[in-house]
Specification:
The chain is mainly beta. It has a domain of about 40 residues. The chain contains 1 helix and 11 strands. The strands form 2 sheets. The chain has a 9-stranded antiparallel beta sheet with strand order 3-4-5-6-7-8-9-10-11, with no helix packed on it. It is globular, with a radius of gyration of 18 Å.
Length: about 180
């Protein structure tokens, strides 16, 4: 691998400035910082899952928890909920389906949970065959009253090849 250094400014999922010339590194940073900003940003229940018809899909005996189906989201989404927390997220698109499995979370000073480790399994929607696996490890740092991303490691296995990508962020400043 090759190390790249630069600066990033994240104002929101679609407002990210990156001062790195290398296009692959820039794309990696943009994709990951955008995803973190989108998934960690403040949204009310009504703005997110509350706009769908939520129904239980089983009796809750699955090891990852009770199935909660998101009716009308267009992606056949369902969650697995255990101990009041999302343990698994499943979605389907025409090109692929995926399952996000939460492996480890940490509790913040604000009594909220941040996911530290999770794996994403991608499947062919027709054959149901496994296409790709990504394993994420995230670390955070406290800045003021915010928990900001400090590092992310992604181990990816696709078509028999394993790759590892990392980003490390430092010198955080709140805007």
């Amino acid at each position: 691998g090759e190390e790249q250094k630069g600066t990033v400014t994240v104002k929101g999922p679609k407002d990210i400035e990156i001062s790195i010339e290398e296009e692959n590194a820039k794309g990696f940073l943009n994709e990951n910082l955008s995803s973190i900003a989108m998934h960690r940003g403040p949204r009310s229940f009504e703005e997110s899952d509350g706009k769908y018809k939520l129904v239980f899909g089983d009796d809750g005996t699955h090891p990852l928890g009770r199935k909660l189906v998101m009716g009308g989201d267009g992606m056949s989404s369902f969650y697995r909920i255990k101990d009041g927390r999302i343990q698994q997220i499943n979605r389907q698109t025409p090109r692929f389906s995926f399952s996000i499995n939460i492996e480890e979370s940490t509790k913040t000073q604000d009594d909220k949970f941040l996911t530290r480790k999770y794996s994403v399994f991608y499947f062919n929607p027709e054959t149901k065959g496994l296409k790709d696996v990504e394993s994420y490890t995230d670390e955070y740092t406290r800045v003021g009253e915010a928990d900001l991303p400090e590092s992310r490691r992604i181990i990816n296995c696709e078509e028999g090849a394993i790759s590892v990508s990392t980003m490390t962020l430092s010198n955080h400043k709140l805007l």
